[in-house]
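Question: what's this shape?

___
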Amino acid sequence: MAVPKRKTSKSVRNMRRSHHALEGTNVVEDKTTGELKRPHHVSPDGYYKGRKVTDAKVNA
């Protein structure tokens, strides 16, 4: 079984995790309303790819 020979310092541990930060989300402009929304998601007014897909109000 592998056992560490020495304790990993806080500096080394944190430098290894430097690429683990969250990235920002992409947004695109909705074709019907012009407001920003996430790609491949239904817009708040119920449209997807320019056509009405639901009558229910979608939470943004």
About this structure: Residues 10-16 form the longest helix (7 residues). The beta strands are 28-29, 36-37, 47-48, 51-52. The two ends are 49 Å apart (CA to CA).
